[in-house]
């Protein structure tokens, strides 16, 4: 650990981050760049940021020796999570003093100390920033001060809704109780309850004697209004009885409902688009066989039957995905058991489509440790990851499957040499029905369900999955499971 922080490098790097924000960048790219700037200046081996929501946390940005943890979830009742959300806002922590799964994984990676600071907005914790070190030397007060400052910068990004939060509904956008306001005939606020302050972000002092931060619907009517930060409010108003001309206004956050409505519309659009092609082809070849059987050669008939079979298989896979996305997938009540990950991967490869199998390059070590999980579900995970890799890369380019293990985890990676993935999409790619393109002119087919199912399956086995750009072009999908 360096005796002093490289402040000139930190300031120069922070200037680059600010210029990114001024140029319109937001969210994960800015957050990751901030970590890349801070790591060498602080002399840290790795940096990480954990985003917290009502149901737990997830590592959404990581650099250096902590990059392996990208995408790792933290349960709300995990001892490490409880520790991070309690105590002083900024402090140094010995990894050995923690008792959760994350601590053992950090120790297994040679990381022994960390400086951690919570990122907060108005008393709400939105995440925690970590600088990780390998040795037993204690970080000095300068490191703690810089980490606290950087965590405040991240909190400011959340307050501005600069592409954050990344996963789930964080405290900044969580639906709260109904807001209540009373406005006079000029539209100025006369009463503003605490829930109104929580829903809109405007304190009582900021709201009183000022206009409402949203349009006032006519008395007795309901209006859905989108706020500048992207949230949706459902607003109602009515005349307040009495001699005055006061209006009472109630409003609540309906962002989740709008999202569900959007998902439903997207489901109809995606399924109709994806079902149309195989159904059209099957019908076309079936009509040809029916109407022209006698004039077709045996070769033509076999080819038509082969195409019908291929398209029917595609249709069956799509239906399976749709049904799985609406139901619980994974091991269910079966307890996790140790299994040979290398053998399971080799067996799963055999069942892949021929056009994928010929592109695969397996590099699996003979001494790969056993994994702890549900072996039958691995075939689904590998099928989705390799299908995704094949879809976004050239037909003649290789798809590499590698694996490794350490004292705590066993991992395998599916790497392609395709178009790659943008940093701001590495988390959104796991959302149900999300696709990088939209409309009928999409260059890449798919329903946007494969990666969503993969994450559900893997996390039900106490593992996690992440995406990252591949050095030299392409994408790396990595699955980590507990060691058996």
From TrEMBL:
Its EC number is 2.7.13.3. GO terms for molecular function: ATP binding; phosphorelay response regulator activity; phosphorelay sensor kinase activity; protein kinase activator activity. Signal peptide: none annotated. It is an enzyme of class 2 (transferase). GO terms for biological process: osmosensory signaling via phosphorelay pathway. Its main location: membrane. Keywords: ATP-binding, Kinase, Membrane, Nucleotide-binding, Phosphoprotein, Transferase, Transmembrane, Transmembrane helix, Two-component regulatory system. This is Sensor-like histidine kinase SenX3. It comes from the Bacteria. The lineage of its organism: Bacteria, Bacillati, Actinomycetota, Actinomycetes, Micromonosporales. It is found in: Cell membrane; Membrane. It is a multi-pass membrane protein.
């Amino acid at each position: 650990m360096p005796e002093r922080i490289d402040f000139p490098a930190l300031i120069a790097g922070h200037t680059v981050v600010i210029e990114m924000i001024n140029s319109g960048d937001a969210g994960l790219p800015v957050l990751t760049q901030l970590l890349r700037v801070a790591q060498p200046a602080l002399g840290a081996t790795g940096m990480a940021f954990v985003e917290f929501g009502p149901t737990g946390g997830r590592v959404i940005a990581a650099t250096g020796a902590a990059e392996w943890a990208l995408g790792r979830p933290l349960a709300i009742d995990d001892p490490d999570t409880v520790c991070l959300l309690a105590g002083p806002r900024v402090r140094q922590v010995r990894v050995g003093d923690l008792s959760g799964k994350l601590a053992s994984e950090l120790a297994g990676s040679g990381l022994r100390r960390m400086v951690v600071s919570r990122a907060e907005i108005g008393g709400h914790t939105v995440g925690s920033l970590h600088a990780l070190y390998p040795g037993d030397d204690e970080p000095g007060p300068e490191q703690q001060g810089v980490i606290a400052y950087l965590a405040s910068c991240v909190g400011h990004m959340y307050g501005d809704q600069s592409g954050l939060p990344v996963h789930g509904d964080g405290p900044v956008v969580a639906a709260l109780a109904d807001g209540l306001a009373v406005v006079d005939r000029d539209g100025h606020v006369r009463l503003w309850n605490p829930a109104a302050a929580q829903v809109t972000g405007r304190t009582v002092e900021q709201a009183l004697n000022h206009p409402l931060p949203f349009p006032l619907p006519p008395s007795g009517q309901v209006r859905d209004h989108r706020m500048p930060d992207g949230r949706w409010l459902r607003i109602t108003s009515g005349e307040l009885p009495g001699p005055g001309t006061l209006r009472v206004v109630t409003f609540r956050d309906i962002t989740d409902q709008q999202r569900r409505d959007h998902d439903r519309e997207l489901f109809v659009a995606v399924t109709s688009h994806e079902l149309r092609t195989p159904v059209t082809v099957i019908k076309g070849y079936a009509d040809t066989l029916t109407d022209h059987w006698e004039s077709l050669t045996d070769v033509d008939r076999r080819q038509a039957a082969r195409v019908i079979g291929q398209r029917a298989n595609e249709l069956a896979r799509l239906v399976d995905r749709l049904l799985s996305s609406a139901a619980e997938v994974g091991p269910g009540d079966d307890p996790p058991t140790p299994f040979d990950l290398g053998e399971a991967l080799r067996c799963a490869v055999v069942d892949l489509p021929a056009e994928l199998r010929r592109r695969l390059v397996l590099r699996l070590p003979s001494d790969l440790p056993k994994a702890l999980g549900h072996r039958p579900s691995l075939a689904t995970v590998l099928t989705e990851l390799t299908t995704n890799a094949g879809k976004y890369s050239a037909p003649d380019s290789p798809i590499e499957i590698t694996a490794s293990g350490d004292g705590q985890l066993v991992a395998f990676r599916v790497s392609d040499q395709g178009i790659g993935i943008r940093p701001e999409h590495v988390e959104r790619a796991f959302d149900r029905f999300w696709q990088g393109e939209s409309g009928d002119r999409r260059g890449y087919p798919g329903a946007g369900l494969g990666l969503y199912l993969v994450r559900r399956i893997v996390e039900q086995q106490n593992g996690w999955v992440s995406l990252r750009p591949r050095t030299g072009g392409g994408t790396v999908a990595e699955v980590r499971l507990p060691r058996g």
